[in-house]
């Protein structure tokens, strides 16, 4: 019988053992193996080239087993896997941190601007304009490949852009009327509208666990609304309508873009939607609110406690954060599963609510805090309930 010696050294001709000739059977026949080339560690390819030798019976004057040295290969593969996992975990942690930080700053700057410059259409159009500039720079410097799409795809993207524009406009209307924490508490109802719209348009049948998780969401939002100090019907219904439009965008994106042969990636899809939204909203803002970026209107904002430089700078920062946090969200979605992204989004909402309450010193009653906590807990349960489903038509 023969045995094999596995080595990690580069392939070379093996010399026969001293004192023995190949014709007496004392030599070793060399055979290359590519076993190690296929070792993978969560996306990291480990390029080991294995070599095996067949040892004849003439070695050391008698037939013997050769020692199989595999520990080096195992340790190298395990080390590469562990290193890849650590690097990926650190990368995700940084991306989630940037996502949360951009969200916090956007909500703070946006609320400060809306307090002294209460024109949500104009502000939303300006934010889409900031995003358009960022997208054009990204394509101009080849930071991301430019999209290629057909006329039929453009029609689908146009419909998504219309819904996207309305959803962000309604969110800004709500943020201008009620507190940041209350707006995000209402937006915790997004899973409820996702299930309803998916059942109506995609034929989705939610599981018992998914339906059960919706009860604490609805109950928590209702409890928080009854005890909200800054409650305003315009702000409430604007946030509710933004839930409908945003989830309609998500549902229709599956319906309109899912059957295309060459669909755009998420980053380019969001970029094209941003540009179209800017083109659509500028004339609408002028028709609804008029031209508000004039010295007289800006001076009225100054009279409310914010000078011109602060107003322009915070508007610009809000616009940059507005586009950047959504772009980072799409990048994270490409790196993790939808369930992980949904859980991260739930944590993000908690972080935004807490940070806004602390920054603006919003008055929050114990019952209001309880309602918000129940709603957010329901969102988390909804995310976990989705992971229990194995059907292809999951939300």
UniProtKB/TrEMBL annotation:
Pfam families assigned to the protein according to its UniProt record, in alphabetical order: TPT (PF03151)
Residue intervals passing through the bilayer: 92-110, 116-142, 154-175, 181-202, 214-234, 267-291, 311-333, 353-382
UniProt entry tagged with the keyword NADP: no
InterPro entries cross-referenced by the UniProt entry: EmrE-like (IPR037185), Sugar_P_trans_dom (IPR004853), Tpt_PEP_transl (IPR004696), TPT_transporter (IPR050186)
Subcellular location: Plastid, Chloroplast membrane
Keywords assigned: Chloroplast, Membrane, Plastid, Transit peptide, Transmembrane, Transmembrane helix, Transport
A single cellular component GO annotation: chloroplast membrane
GO molecular function ontology, one term from the record: phosphoglycerate transmembrane transporter activity
Topology versus the membrane: Multi-pass membrane protein
The Sugar phosphate transporter domain, residue ranges: 90-383
NCBIfam families: tpt
UniProt cross-references to PANTHER family, sorted A to Z: SOLUTE CARRIER FAMILY 35
Stated name of the protein: Sugar phosphate transporter domain-containing protein
Organism of provenance: Kalanchoe fedtschenkoi (Lavender scallops)
């Amino acid at each position: 019988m023969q045995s094999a010696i596995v080595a990690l050294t580069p392939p070379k001709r093996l010399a026969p053992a001293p004192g023995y000739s190949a014709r007496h059977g004392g030599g070793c026949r060399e055979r290359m193996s590519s076993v190690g080339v296929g070792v993978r560690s969560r996306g990291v390819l480990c390029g080991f080239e294995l070599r095996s030798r067949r040892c004849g019976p003439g070695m050391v004057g008698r037939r013997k087993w050769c020692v199989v040295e595999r520990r080096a290969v195992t340790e190298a593969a395990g080390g590469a896997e562990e290193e890849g996992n650590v690097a990926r975990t650190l990368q995700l942690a940084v991306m989630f941190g940037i996502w949360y930080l951009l969200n916090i700053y956007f909500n703070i700057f946006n609320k400060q601007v809306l307090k002294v410059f209460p024109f949500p259409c104009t502000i939303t159009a300006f934010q889409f304009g900031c995003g358009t500039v960022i997208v054009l720079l990204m394509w101009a410097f080849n930071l991301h490949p430019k999209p290629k799409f057909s006329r039929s795809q453009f029609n689908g993207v146009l419909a998504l852009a219309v819904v996207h524009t309305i959803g962000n406009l309604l969110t800004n209307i709500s943020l201008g009327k009620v507190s940041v924490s209350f707006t995000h508490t209402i937006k915790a109802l997004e899973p409820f509208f996702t299930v309803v719209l998916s059942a109506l348009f995609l034929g989705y049948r939610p599981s018992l666990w998914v339906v059960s998780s919706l009860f604490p969401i609805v109950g928590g939002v209702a409890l928080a609304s009854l005890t909200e100090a800054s409650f305003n019907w315009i702000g409430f219904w604007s946030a509710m309508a933004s839930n409908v439009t945003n989830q309609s965008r998500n549902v229709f994106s599956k319906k309109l873009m899912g059957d295309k042969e060459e669909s755009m990636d998420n980053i380019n899809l969001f970029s094209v939607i941003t540009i179209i939204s800017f083109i659509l909203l500028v004339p609408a803002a002028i028709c609804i609110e008029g031209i508000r970026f004039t010295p007289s209107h800006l001076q009225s904002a100054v009279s409310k406690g914010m000078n011109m430089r602060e107003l322009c700078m915070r508007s610009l920062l809000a616009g940059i954060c507005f586009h950047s946090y959504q772009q980072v969200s799409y990048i994270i979605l490409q790196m993790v599963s939808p369930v992980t992204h949904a859980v991260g989004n739930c944590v993000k909402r908690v972080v935004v609510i807490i940070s806004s309450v602390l920054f603006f010193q919003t008055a929050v009653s114990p019952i209001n805090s309880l309602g918000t906590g129940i709603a957010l807990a329901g969102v988390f349960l909804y995310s976990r309930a989705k992971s229990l489903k194995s059907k292809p038509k999951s939300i």
